[in-house]
C-alpha cells in the first residue's frame, strides 16, 4: 500500500488534473475483476425444462401441428396485400376485418401450450337485425350539371338587413 501512496503523490505533483482520469481507469480495472451479476451464484436452480430435449421436442411438435394453419394464414395475408391497391372502400373494410381475425388467430396460436389444439372461434350473434335504408328521391329536377353551380347557388340568396343608425349632431346655442 505504501507504493500506491507513493505513486499517488507523484501523480498529484506532476499530473494534477489527470489524476481523476487515472483513478477512474483504476476503478474500472478493479471492477472488471469482480464477478458480474450473472456470474454470481444464485440460490434457485434454472428451469431445466427449458433446456431439456423434451421441451425442444414439444416446441417442434407444436410448430409442426400448426404449420398448415400458419401457412394458410400467411397465404391469405399475401392475397390481401395483393388486392389492397385497387380495392374499393367496402372491400378495404372487409380486408381490415379479415386481418383482425388473422391477428386473433395468431395470438391464440402463440398462447397454446404443447398438446393443445386451436378450437374454432365462434362469432357472437347480433341481437338485432339491420334495418333497410329507405330510398328518397327529391322532387323536381335532381340530375344537375355540377359545372353550372356556384357557391352562391348553394348558399342561397342573402337577405339584406337594414339597421337604423342614429347620428348625433351638435346643437349650437346663441349663448356660445
What's the number of helices? Answer: 6
What number is the mean pLDDT?
74
Output the structural class. Answer: mainly alpha
Please state the CA-atom Rg, rounded to the nearest Å.
Answer: 42 Å
- The helix content is 40-55%
* Strands, count: 0
What is the ordering of alpha helices and beta strands? Answer: HHHHHH
Residue runs with pLDDT of under 50 for 5 or more positions: none
Strand content: under 5%
Silhouette: flat
Distance, first to last CA: 111 Å
Oligomer designation = single chain
Outline the biggest β-sheet.
none
Keywords:
mainly alpha; 52% helix; flat
Describe this structure in words.
With 176 residues, this protein is mainly α. Among the domains are: 2-32, no CATH class; 48-111. It is built from 6 helices and no strands. The protein has helices spanning 2-15, 19-32, 48-51, 53-83, 89-111, 151-155. Helix 4 (53-83) runs antiparallel to helix 5. It starts with a helix and ends in a 21-residue tail after the last helix. The mean pLDDT is 74.
In short:
The protein is mostly helical and 176 residues long. Helices cover 52% and strands 0% of the residues.
Topology:
Elements: H1 2-15, H2 19-32, H3 48-51, H4 53-83, H5 89-111, H6 151-155
Helix pairs in contact: 4-5
